[in-house]
Design brief:
99 residues; mainly alpha; rod-shaped
């Protein structure tokens, strides 16, 4: 008798599938409404995150540029010192060769 009730078309559980479509539509509508309320907040949040990422990238680029500038400065100083040392050594050799 119980198995006959489960397999029957009169089974309320079998008709549950008919109720799922309106429930699904209701859930979708509620989700759209909630999403619509929070969408402006989400847009602002994403914009702030992108602005922060751009700021970090700009700061990193400034740091890299500063490192390049300092490296070039050190290179030019070392080159200048070598030139001065070369000229000094060259002048000493010329003066000792003459003297």
């Amino acid at each position: 008798m119980f198995s006959r009730f489960i397999m029957s078309d009169e089974n309320p559980i079998a008709k549950l599938g008919d109720l799922t479509k309106p429930a699904t539509v209701l859930i979708e509508k509620i989700s759209e409404a909630v999403g619509g309320v929070f969408k402006p907040y989400q847009i602002v949040r994403v914009a702030k995150a992108e602005a922060e990422a751009n700021r970090i990238q700009a700061e990193s680029q400034i740091q890299v540029t500063d490192l390049h500038r300092r490296a070039m400065h050190r290179f030019l100083e070392a080159r200048s010192e070598k030139t001065i040392q070369y000229r000094s050594n060259h002048a000493e050799r010329n003066s000792s060769a003459r003297g």
